[in-house]
Design a protein that fits this description.
The protein is of the alpha+beta class. The chain has four helices and five strands; from the N terminus they run αββαβαββα. The mean pLDDT is 96.
């Protein structure tokens, strides 16, 4: 593992440590990398009104967008699960708006690892071309 890869894994695990998951107990951290190499982290934030929560991936995406970034190369997702976890459907759609071929790595604190392309996980996203303008 390269130093850059280790730093991304550390950023995702560090973000996971800040997750607010009192209802599910499923803490998630994410480290999203921009085209220029800047890293933005996010963690899941649950809410007692369940649909109001935010996933780690969308938290990192929102932080990057508010900082002016719109192009991303990859994301690392960290969980305490036994099996690496892919992004949920909403996160897949949100990430595809900016990076349809995003490289996704999922790691667990137990050392398991998985790798996907966003285009493999979401082969037919809803895109701006899906909108019909009169």
């Amino acid at each position: 593992m390269t130093a850059a890869t280790t730093a991304l894994h550390d950023a995702a695990v560090g973000a996971m440590g800040h997750a607010y998951a009192p209802y599910s107990g499923f803490r998630v951290g994410a480290a999203l990398v921009t085209a220029d190499g800047t890293v933005f982290s996010g963690c899941n934030v649950e809410n007692s009104a369940f649909p109001a929560g935010t996933c780690a991936e969308r938290g990192a995406l929102a932080a990057a967008v508010v900082a002016g970034h719109r192009s991303f190369t990859h994301i690392v997702i960290a969980t305490e699960a036994e099996v690496p976890t892919s992004p949920c459907g909403i996160c897949r759609q949100a990430l595809s708006e900016f990076a349809p071929s995003l490289d996704i790595v999922s790691i667990t604190t137990a050392g398991a690892r998985a790798h996907w392309s966003l285009s493999d996980l979401l082969p037919h996203p809803f895109t701006p071309q899906s909108l019909h303008h009169l």
